[in-house]
Amino acid sequence: MNPQQREQAERESDAADFHTVIPCATKSSIEAQFQDVYTHQKFREVQAQFRGKVNCITRLTNSALGYSVYEVGEQVSSSIFNKFVVTYDSVAAEVKCQCLLFESIGLLCHHALSVLSFEQVSQVSPRYIMERWSKKVKRRHTHIKSSHDEPLMEPRSKRFDQLVFCSQNICEFASELEELTAILHRAYDNVMAEMESLKGKRKGTSSLSHEDANLESVNELQSLPKIRTRGRPKNRLGSKLDKQIANATKKKKTKVLSEINLFDAASVVHSNSSQHQGHVMNYQFRVPAARDNSLGI
């Protein structure tokens, strides 16, 4: 599937998220909460955790001032149970599990969901609903395209998702108090300065080598040997027509020159004949004069 087809499929999936509904697997109001917010793809992952509650046995071990500690046994086979410690703070509406699934991928595990069901919690805190998986958020396809057009960009897309998730949790925690917000701002400034310094060093090294490569390429282009051209190729398109035009022009010039030569020759002959006739007339005019003089003697 090429990037265009992938993007079209995702657009169709986005449209399905708005116009269709996946039925809930349980009667839990928490599942209905995720059903209303999450995309179909992510809601199916949430449903898998709700189905996993069936294999969990929840037992309260300690409770004080709204803070409870539970032991959740997950049955993985007929005789094997894995035990997980889950804590629930009813005042902060916060649940934490030893498996750290939410801290890893942002999904509440079936151990935590089992404890919430035991505590009869009807709605989870907004901190457990990731906005980036909401069907109301228009997805940006830049990271999706880059991961398909260039396979090397896929790790960057994964790092981006992890950073977004971690930063969202940190921001939610820091926004509770002004002092925590100030600490986070100072940390951001220090981290940004360190990252810009490291990026600048790497960029300077890469840009220098890139510049040297460009200069070397320019020198190679400038040092290309000059090739002396031989003029128009003999088998050029239209050469036959050019020869015909040249021959016709040559014949026309020859004909004109012949006509000019004939004209000049005719003029010379005519001039000579006129002079010859003049001499004859003069001769004929003088003969009678000489004859009359002889008769008068």
TrEMBL record:
Compartment(s): Nucleus
Protein name, as recorded: Protein FAR1-RELATED SEQUENCE
GO molecular function (one): zinc ion binding
Domain SWIM-type, first and last residues per copy: 84-120
Keyword Zinc-finger: yes
Keywords: Metal-binding, Nucleus, Zinc, Zinc-finger
A GO BP entry: regulation of DNA-templated transcription
SMART domains (UniProt xref): ZnF_PMZ
Function of the molecule: Putative transcription activator involved in regulating light control of development.
GO CC term (a single one): nucleus
Species, as recorded: Arachis hypogaea (Peanut)
Family listed: Belongs to the FHY3/FAR1 family.
InterPro entries assigned: FHY3/FAR1 (IPR031052), Znf_PMZ (IPR006564), Znf_SWIM (IPR007527)
PANTHER family: PROTEIN FAR1-RELATED SEQUENCE, PROTEIN FAR1-RELATED SEQUENCE 10-RELATED
